[in-house]
Automatic annotation (TrEMBL), chain A:
<dbReference type="InterPro" id="IPR046952">
    <property type="entry name" value="GSHR/TRXR-like"/>
</dbReference>
<feature type="domain" description="Pyridine nucleotide-disulphide oxidoreductase dimerisation">
    <location>
        <begin position="385"/>
        <end position="496"/>
    </location>
</feature>
<dbReference type="GO" id="GO:0006749">
    <property type="term" value="P:glutathione metabolic process"/>
</dbReference>
<dbReference type="InterPro" id="IPR006338">
    <property type="entry name" value="Thioredoxin/glutathione_Rdtase"/>
</dbReference>
<dbReference type="GO" id="GO:0005739">
    <property type="term" value="C:mitochondrion"/>
</dbReference>
<dbReference type="InterPro" id="IPR004099">
    <property type="entry name" value="Pyr_nucl-diS_OxRdtase_dimer"/>
</dbReference>
<feature type="active site" description="Proton acceptor">
    <location>
        <position position="487"/>
    </location>
</feature>
<feature type="domain" description="FAD/NAD(P)-binding">
    <location>
        <begin position="30"/>
        <end position="365"/>
    </location>
</feature>
<keyword id="KW-0285">Flavoprotein</keyword>
UniProtKB/TrEMBL annotation, chain B:
<dbReference type="InterPro" id="IPR013766">
    <property type="entry name" value="Thioredoxin_domain"/>
</dbReference>
<keyword id="KW-0249">Electron transport</keyword>
<keyword id="KW-1015">Disulfide bond</keyword>
<dbReference type="InterPro" id="IPR036249">
    <property type="entry name" value="Thioredoxin-like_sf"/>
</dbReference>
<keyword id="KW-0813">Transport</keyword>
<dbReference type="InterPro" id="IPR017937">
    <property type="entry name" value="Thioredoxin_CS"/>
</dbReference>
<protein>
    <recommendedName>
        <fullName>Thioredoxin, mitochondrial</fullName>
    </recommendedName>
</protein>
<feature type="domain" description="Thioredoxin">
    <location>
        <begin position="51"/>
        <end position="175"/>
    </location>
</feature>
<dbReference type="Pfam" id="PF00085">
    <property type="entry name" value="Thioredoxin"/>
</dbReference>
Length: 512, 205
């Protein structure tokens, strides 16, 4: 604690003294020092502490360009999964309220949404999680410090407080789990000045109003999805394709659903500039790259969802020779999360080639902690990771996309079973189910091992979780059809798929 | 911190010196109140009204007994160094039960007519302070006297139970069962009726 009160002018001398004393005594302040208090960092530090290690975690949130900042817990808790899912739920409830009339509920003709009510409720929950994490760290005896960490050498970290006070910490092992932040486009005038990112959207006190979402990643589509769902005029601007990296047929179904339900899409378009007009609104001019024509329109908010950049700049990694991927800027890591510098590890969103998901970060963090404590040699298995995109029509998948399976096994090496189904709940509600679809990609011949499973429909995440277990166990097509379905559900259609793409037959499920 | 508390104890009046006989006769009661009022009037008047709770209590004609803690120094001055026993209400914006307990606590404290003060600490604003006092779930109420924690409880009784306790019976509780000791015990006996049902946040991992 005394370190916090050292004067800046004495820092250098004490720094050297500190490092010297560590080198002399061989004694580090901590067994493990984790930089980053997000999904990965917290899981790793708590696991290590439970195994008897002396652990400290540094968490610091650099405010967004618009000044948004938040507490302990990282992206997932504060500006990711949690607020996203809650707002997605708010949007789904809006649809449910409309459906309710058909089911006999006496609901007024116009039902409106109040952003501040939703925002306050979401913020309260997020704050309760911030607090919960703080208490957990305390309970598990992990030292928490609200400091911005950077590396001095392979055993030394410098922590900078908001007020500018410096603290030097030494550790046997250092783990970097700083994650990423949304990118702003660099070549569009007015982008940073007038636009916001996902860091800001969840913390707005007032409704964003008529919004332009630039990007077609899951972040862009999920945000556009709930904004439209709560009744806001929403436009999505896509440069090339939607949901890059995902199965493109499924991506098409997701965007088709959104378009059919009122979200405007500006395909193959790139924004040129953003200006603020006298009314206070934002005027965006863009080019349709297919026709070359220019367009402009005014919006209340512009949300940039054009990618995420790793938080490595302020870490001082180049000084230590920690290898980064030149293209992405992420840290190059081995299968055991090690970096090019011994005793420095990195995992989570910051790791090159790793899925940017909370559950993988948590699991990887726990396994890393066990390995560092000498309790295990088990490596993280990054294969067969299921995931869900929480767009208005949810899409979940596990395993390979059709394109990837084709690439690896050849068109004749795979058999694709598919079905268009209609959720029972949509019938009375008279909802269009054209995009509710299931696709099971299997190996041709042999056991018919399932290579990939794809599902669009309500509660897609809940549906896919169980199937992911089967996938992990190496389920085959025959396993699938041997399983009796639960009736009446959407999930049962997965175990009933029998029409192949190859046959060319109509894949629409008829009544039971 | 321990040595600081010891020093503070030497400075502050022991609460036992302020004896209030539980009686319904106005004359005696008023003198008791005036004594306690006098000893802490200077402090109360020193504290600007803006620092006290904006919420109006039914008995505010007397004085405001509860206040929001502003920072660590404020906590030290008005809680640790307080001559009165202090009930510290650790609460949070996102905690539903806290919103129910808060006003009830204030009412009960107000009934003590100046013998007990109440400090409110928002745990999001004063996280380190809350952690220091071992708060995990909210609401957590800690009773402090002379800078020491003498008792605490976590959670709030469900609303229906409170409605069964009429104001009159609360008063009787105080008058009948309390010896002429520290008012804190009286208040705590009141709260020993409250079962713990804390608002614990659910964590994803």
């Amino acid at each position: 604690m005394a370190a916090l009160y050292r004067g800046r002018h004495r820092w250098k001398r004490i720094n050297c003294l500190h490092i010297f004393s560590r080198k002399l005594t061989g004694k580090n302040d901590y067994d493990l020092l984790v930089i980053g208090g997000g999904s990965g960092g917290l899981a790793c530090s708590k696991e290590a502490a439970q195994l008897g290690q002396k652990v400290a975690v540094l968490d610091y949130v650099e405010p967004s360009a618009k000044g948004a900042k938040w507490g302990l817990g990282g992206t997932c808790v504060n500006v990711g999964c949690i607020p996203k899912k809650l707002m997605h739920q708010a949007a789904l409830l809006g649809t449910a309220v409309k459906d309710a009339k058909k089911y006999g509920w006496q609901i007024p003709d116009t039902v409106s949404h109040d952003w501040p009510t939703m925002a306050e409720a979401v913020h309260n929950h997020v704050k309760s999680l911030n607090w919960g994490h703080r208490v957990q760290l305390q309970d598990k005896k992990v030292k928490y410090m609200n400091l911005k960490g950077s590396l001095v050498d392979e055993h030394t970290v410098r922590g900078l407080s908001k007020a500018g006070k410096e603290t030097i910490l030494t550790a046997k092992n250092i783990v970097i789990a700083t994650g990423g932040r949304p990118k702003y486009p660099t070549n569009i005038p007015g982008a940073a000045e007038h636009g916001i990112t996902s860091d800001d959207i969840f913390w707005l006190k007032k409704s964003p109003g008529k919004t332009l979402v630039v990007g077609a990643s899951y972040v862009a589509l999920e945000c556009a999805g709930f904004l439209k769902g709560i009744g806001l005029d929403t436009t999505v601007m896509v440069r090339s394709i939607a949901l890059r990296g995902f199965d493109q047929q499924m991506a098409g179904l997701v965007t088709d659903y959104m378009e059919a339900h009122g979200t405007r899409f500006a395909w193959k378009s790139v924004p040129n500039r953003v200006d603020k007009v006298s009314s206070g609104a934002l005027q965006v001019t863009w080019t349709d790259t297919q026709t070359g024509s220019e367009h402009k329109d005014t919006f209340d908010s512009v949300l940039w969802a054009v990618g995420r950049a790793p938080e490595t700049k302020a870490l001082g990694l180049d000084k230590l020779g920690v290898q980064l991927n030149k293209e992405t800027g992420k840290i190059v890591v081995g299968p055991d999360e090690s970096t090019s510098v011994p005793n420095i590890y990195a995992f989570g969103d910051i790791g090159e080639g790793r899925p940017e998901l909370t559950p993988t970060a948590i699991k990887a963090g726990k396994l890393l902690a066990r390995r560092l404590a000498g309790q295990s040699t088990e490596l993280m298995n990054y294969d067969n990771v299921p995931t869900t995109v929480f767009t208005p029509l949810e899409y979940s998948c596990v395993g390979l996309s059709e394109e990837e399976a084709e690439k690896r096994h050849g068109k004749d090496g795979i058999e694709i079973y598919h079905a268009f189904y209609k959720p029972l709940e949509f019938t009375v509600a008279e909802r269009d189910a054209s995009q509710c679809y299931i696709k099971v990609v299997c190996e041709q011949g042999g056991t018919g091992k399932i290579l990939g499973l794809h599902f669009t429909g309500p509660n897609a995440g809940e549906v896919a979780q169980g199937f992911a277990v089967g996938f992990q166990c190496g389920a085959t097509y025959s396993h699938l059809i041997q399983t009796v379905g639960i009736h009446p559900t959407c999930a049962e259609e997965v175990v009933k798929v029998h029409i192949t793409k190859r046959s060319g037959l109509d894949a629409t499920v008829t009544g039971c | 911190m321990a040595h600081r508390l010891v020093l503070r104890r030497l400075w502050t009046l022991s609460v036992n010196d302020i004896r209030c006989l539980p009686t319904s006769t106005a004359s005696v009661a008023s003198s008791c109140y005036s004594t306690s009022l006098q000893s802490s009037t200077t402090r109360v008047s020193f504290l600007s009204p803006s620092r006290s709770l904006p919420r109006a209590l039914p008995h505010t004609s007397r004085r405001e007994v509860s206040f929001n803690v502003q920072d660590n120094e404020d906590f030290t001055e008005r809680v640790i160094n307080s001559e009165l026993p202090v009930l510290v209400d650790f609460h949070a914006q996102w905690c539903g039960p806290c919103k129910i307990l808060g006003p009830r606590l204030e009412k009960a404290v107000a009934k003590q007519k100046g013998r007990v003060a109440m400090a409110k600490v928002d745990i999001d604003d004063h996280t380190d302070l809350a952690i220091e006092y071992g708060v995990s779930a909210v609401p957590t109420v800690i009773a402090m006297r002379g800078g020491d924690v003498v008792d605490h409880f976590v959670g709030s009784k469900m609303m229906m139970s409170w409605t069964h306790l009429s104001a009159k019976s609360l008063d009787n509780e105080i008058h009948l069962s309390s010896p002429s000791h520290t008012p804190t015990i009286v208040v705590l006996m009141l709260f020993s009726l409250i079962l713990a049902r804390p608002a614990s946040p659910g964590l994803p991992f």
